[in-house]
Automatic annotation (TrEMBL), chain A:
This is ABC transporter permease. Keywords: Cell membrane, Membrane, Transmembrane, Transmembrane helix. It is a multi-pass membrane protein. The chain crosses the membrane at residues 6-25, 37-57, 63-84, 96-119, 139-161, 194-214, 226-250, 271-288. Its main location: membrane. It is found in: Cell inner membrane. Signal peptide: none annotated. The lineage of its organism: Bacteria, Pseudomonadati, Pseudomonadota, Gammaproteobacteria, Thiotrichales. It comes from Thiomicrorhabdus heinhorstiae. Pfam families: BPD_transp_2 (PF02653).
From TrEMBL, chain B:
One of its GO terms (molecular function) is ATP binding. Residues 5-236, 253-498 form the ABC transporter domain. InterPro entries: AAA+_ATPase (IPR003593), ABC_carbohydrate_import_ATPase (IPR050107), ABC_transporter-like_ATP-bd (IPR003439), ABC_transporter-like_CS (IPR017871), P-loop_NTPase (IPR027417). It holds the Pfam family ABC_tran. It comes from the Bacteria. Keywords: ATP-binding, Nucleotide-binding. This is ABC transporter ATP-binding protein.
Length: 308, 508
């Protein structure tokens, strides 16, 4: 396979595809973490979004309904998490892990009948004229709506956090829940909303996987993307623009390993499959050696007891 | 005149304690009203109810003559009540401006807010850079941010919860100027403190609480601090009794040429510290915070390794001994930080008693914890040092600061150490309890123990020490007998100037 412009365009398009679920899920988790809640259940929320979205599309034929159902499934999972950790004050780490295991199991059970069924995929939004441009048309202007949405959300998240009063309050709650409480903000309610939003974005990421990225259902099809998205938030030091950068970097590694295999590079394919995870670990180590602790929301992962 | 705020028969109970029992309070416009009481007297609970953070079980709150039910802080603010918290309610990672915006009840344009902030801070002489992040500010500046946040809401009543406990004397003076000006403009101020001198100079009237009950409202300008303290505690405070000592026993600890590089970015390296303490002697180390006290304590407690000969305890070179082995040879230690250093915040008092006392009090039985003995020990500490708690199984962090301090000091003294190292032993502790702690330190020295006290409080050092020295930028001054040096001279040493007057008794 020669590297002509067409192949390069194809590679870039697939990288964008691989990056989008990471980007969506990580942007959602970023908001949850900014409010001070560490939800390790990303993977579980994503896979539930994937299976429910696929089932809905298969049974109704409506892609819109499928996407909505995926979002709701993610939110449903997030609601369980929020109730346990915020209302009952259970440990966030343990609850998040349990949520992932629960989601993986439940999705496999629900999706038993749907394994191996194909779906045509989300329609591409070919922007008139622009999409016919050579090279750039394919790379920039011929994607489905979720990809444009994910890019828009990078900007929207930045704007929300840094330019709006609600974003300021959200950050305040994540910074010091006691101080926010003493000023009189409803800490628990704000965190509920942030966690539900994170669930919605994860569910959407899952829907994107099963409806667009590889339009089908298979057990465990998220394949660790939730964990990568989680690491991305730390990698990005809680900044939306860096989440974008990280998502495309990790997406790129995923795709390049596929192409590397295709081009017969004599490195075991397992090595390439391992790369994104290795990169995650290295990034985590590098970042933890810097003073990233000061960048993290100060109340991250700490339960709030509204007694005093 | 209609009082700005009036409380009638306010009662609030928590599981296991009655925090406020039929409290009455009346504040006039333009009045600075002190709320006085010991740790745990119910001051904080009372103001939390005024600010809407808690609701009273019974009783009435009147605001400018009308009865109100204070549902939440938002409502309190809309009425014109502002509060400056003891532990600041600021967000470290955010800027001054963002912090103030978060504290406002309506959405505000940041540019307009910044302009208002600059104006009002110039007006009151409270300089602050609105773009700076909170974690870059000093404690005094942080408090300024809180005050400005209240002022922007044009408060009619300002509540200040122990505002001066973290300030330097100069900052306190500035604060008082601001408060007096606010009062002259008609703002009422409710001022919580147990520093009686301050109340005497600042406040127009004072309400005393004891054990949650209203005792009386009096005019602090007409009372002596001693008389107010007596009403606060409910009994006469006996100043610690000290007998002049002329001879001391053998040397317990000798520190010679101890130099340690600080592991903190803004710490102070210790430079050639030398001193010695003998049996029965109490040595005080005065100094403004941040002059190497933390580093000295770490070296003495065994948290940092030092050259083996630089610290000699009971004749044994001990510079490299870890903390627990130093405890084994009779040392006890009250650290600066009570949470996380002096105690494990989430563990019970029972466990915290065990952690430092298991060697000296023999709380282990063939390697297993003797729970009975351990409980007895914890209970004994609580009884003897009047620690208010709801059982020895309650977590250390659930105690108020002063009560936890009493527990930690008690735990160390009751081990009967031959050497006690105590940092700020009465920090945040009220007058009555402080006197009791001072007395037990003196009693310990009477039993031939050597004691080292590090403190910023000169009254404390002059009340209990036999000898005193000053730490300044990591260097220790010569040691002076307490009778041979005045406060002024110590004050000069704390500022880095060696007074030419007295001759040191022991040249280091």
């Amino acid at each position: 396979m020669a590297l002509n412009p067409e192949v390069i365009a194809l590679i870039i398009v697939t990288i964008i595809g691989a990056a989008t679920p990471l980007l969506l899920a990580a942007l959602g988790e970023l908001i949850a973490e900014k409010s001070g809640v560490l939800n390790l259940g990303l993977e579980g929320m994503m896979i539930m979004g994937a299976v429910i979205a696929f089932m809905t599309v298969h049974n109704t034929g409506s892609a819109t309904l499928g996407i909505v159902a995926g979002i709701l499934a993610g939110m449903g999972m997030a609601l369980i998490f929020a109730f346990l950790t915020l209302s009952l004050q259970s440990n966030q780490v343990a609850t998040g892990l349990a949520l992932t295991i629960f989601g993986l199991g439940l999705s496999a059970l629900l999706g038993r009948e749907y394994v191996g069924i194909a779906y045509s995929g989300l329609p591409k939004l070919d922007l008139p004229v622009l999409s016919e441009l050579p090279f750039f048309g394919k790379v920039l202007f011929s994607h489905d709506i979720l990809i444009y949405f994910s890019l828009f959300m990078v900007f929207a998240t930045f704007y929300f956090l840094n330019r709006t009063r609600s974003g300021l309050i959200l950050r305040a709650v994540g910074e010091s829940h006691d101080a926010a409480h003493s000023i009189g903000y409803p800490v628990i309610a704000i965190r509920y909303m942030a966690v539900l939003y994170g669930g919605a974005m994860s569910g959407l990421a899952g829907a994107y996987l099963s409806l667009s990225y590889s339009p089908m259902w298979a057990d465990n099809m998220t394949a660790g993307r939730g964990w990568i998205a989680l690491a991305l938030v730390v990698f990005a030091m809680w900044m939306p623009s860096r989440v974008l950068l990280g998502a495309y970097m990790f997406g790129g590694i995923t795709i390049l390993q596929l192409h590397g295999q295709g081009m017969g590079i004599a490195i075991p394919s397992e090595f390439f499959s391992m790369l994104p995870y290795l990169a995650t670990i290295i990034v985590l180590v590098i970042i933890s050696r810097q003073s990233s602790a000061s960048l993290a929301p100060a109340s991250l992962g700490k339960p709030f007891h509204p007694t005093h | 005149m209609t009082p700005r705020l009036q409380l009638k028969q306010i009662t609030k109970a928590f599981p296991g304690c009655l925090a406020n029992d039929r409290v009455d309070l009346k504040i006039q416009p333009g009045e600075i009203h002190a709320l006085l009481g010991e740790n745990g007297a119910g001051k904080s609970t009372l103001v939390k109810m005024i600010y809407g953070l808690m609701q009273p079980d019974s009783g009435q709150i009147f605001w400018q003559g009308e009865e109100v039910i204070m549902q939440n802080p938002k409502m309190a603010r809309s009425l014109g009540i502002g509060m400056v918290f003891q532990h600041f309610s600021l967000f470290e990672a955010m800027t001054v401006l963002e912090n103030i915006a978060v504290g406002m009840d309506q959405a505000v344009d940041l540019k307009t807010l910044e302009k208002q902030l600059v104006e009002i801070s110039a007006d009151y002489g409270l300089q602050i850079d609105p773009r700076k992040a909170i974690h870059d500010l000093s404690v005094g500046e942080r408090q300024r941010v809180e005050i400005l946040r209240c002022l922007l809401q044009q408060p009619k009543l300002l509540i200040m919860d122990e505002p001066t406990s973290v300030l330097t004397p100069q900052e306190v003076e500035k604060l008082f100027v601001t408060l007096k000006r606010l009062a002259s403009e008609g703002v009422s101020i409710l001022y919580i403190s147990h520093k009686l001198d301050e109340i005497k100079t600042l406040c127009h009237s004072a309400t005393i609480l004891r054990g949650g009950r209203f005792i009386e409202t009096l005019d602090p300008t007409q009372e002596t601090p001693a008389a107010m303290a007596q009403r606060m505690v409910g009994e006469k405070i006996t100043p610690p009794k000290r007998t002049e000592k002329t001879a001391y026993g053998k040397e317990i600890i000798r520190v010679q040429n101890l130099s340690v590089e600080s592991d903190q970015p803004f710490g102070n390296d210790l430079k050639e510290i030398s001193f010695q303490i003998r049996e029965g002697e109490i040595l005080g180390v005065a100094g403004i915070a941040g002059n190497g006290q933390t580093e000295l304590l770490e070296a003495l407690s065994g948290e940092v390794d030092t050259p083996i000969d630089s610290i000699v305890i009971q004749g044994r070179p001990s510079g490299n001994l870890p903390s627990n082995q130093r405890r084994m040879i009779g040392m006890a230690y009250v650290p600066e930080e009570r949470l996380g250093h002096g105690s494990v915040p989430d563990e019970s008092l029972h466990s915290n008693a065990l952690l430092s006392g298991y060697q000296a009090k023999k709380l282990l039985n063939r390697g297993f914890i003797d729970h009975k003995k351990c409980s007895d020990y914890a209970n004994h500490i609580c009884d003897k040092y009047k620690v208010k708690q709801s059982g020895i199984n309650s977590a250390a962090k659930s105690l108020s600061g002063g009560n936890l301090q009493k527990f930690i000091v008690g735990r160390e003294i009751e081990q009967g150490p031959s050497l006690l190292i105590a940092a700020q032993p009465t920090w945040g502790v009220d007058a009555g309890a402080a006197a009791a702690i001072h007395q037990s330190i003196i009693d310990l020295a009477q039993k031939n123990s050597a004691v080292l006290v590090l403190s910023q409080d000169l009254d404390e050092l002059f009340a209990i020490c036999d000898a005193i020295c000053v730490i300044y930028e990591g260097r220790l001054s010569a040691t002076y007998p307490i009778s041979a040096i005045s406060r002024e001279e110590i004050g000069l040493l704390m500022g880095g100037i060696t007074p030419p007057l007295s001759t040191p008794a022991q040249t280091a």
